[in-house]
C-alpha cells in the first residue's frame, strides 16, 4: 500500500534522476503523471516519445508553491483574484515569459501551470527546487493511469516512480484561461 507522503531517500533519488535528464512517474490529485526537468529538452522529448504526443501541443508545469512556477509565466493582464481563486488545484493557462522554450509551450504564447496541494508533488518540487513537467501518464488515446499497475503496463519498469497515493479527484485537473476565465477543460 502506498503512503500519503514520499520517503526522503526516495525524493533524493528522484531529484537526482530529474537533474540527470531522467523521466519519472508520480501521483497527482487525480491521475498519475510523467515528469521531467522542464529545462532539459531531451528529457521532454523522451516523455513525448513515450506518450506518442506531438510537441506543438505544449505541456503543463506543476509545483507545490507559486514561487516555484513564477519564472515561467507573467501575470500581465491576469486579475490577481483569479490566481487566488484557482490556486491551488486548477491548471491555469498564463502568458508565458519570453524565455520559456518552445518545447514547453508548444505552438502557444502561453504556458499551462498548476500549483498543487498533493503532498507528493509538494515534497518533490520543494526538493527539486522548482516546477517540473506534468503530463498524464498514458499514451495518446489511452486512459490516464490511476494506479501503479497501469503505469507498469503502459511503460514497464524503466521509469522510476514516486511512491505515494493519488489525491481524491476522479479526473485530471480543470484547465482555465487565466486572462479570460474561460474553462478549457472541466
TrEMBL record:
Pfam families: Sua5_yciO_yrdC. GO terms for biological process: regulation of translational fidelity; tRNA threonylcarbamoyladenosine modification. It catalyses: L-threonine + hydrogencarbonate + ATP = L-threonylcarbamoyladenylate + diphosphate + H2O. Its EC number is 2.7.7.87. It comes from the Bacteria. Residues 8-186 form the YrdC-like domain. GO terms for cellular component: cytoplasm. GO terms for molecular function: ATP binding; double-stranded RNA binding; L-threonylcarbamoyladenylate synthase; tRNA binding. It is found in: Cytoplasm. Transmembrane segments: none annotated. Keywords: ATP-binding, Cytoplasm, Nucleotide-binding, Nucleotidyltransferase, Transferase, tRNA processing. Belongs to the SUA5 family. This is L-threonylcarbamoyladenylate synthase. It comes from Acidithiobacillus marinus. The lineage of its organism: Bacteria, Pseudomonadati, Pseudomonadota, Acidithiobacillia, Acidithiobacillales.
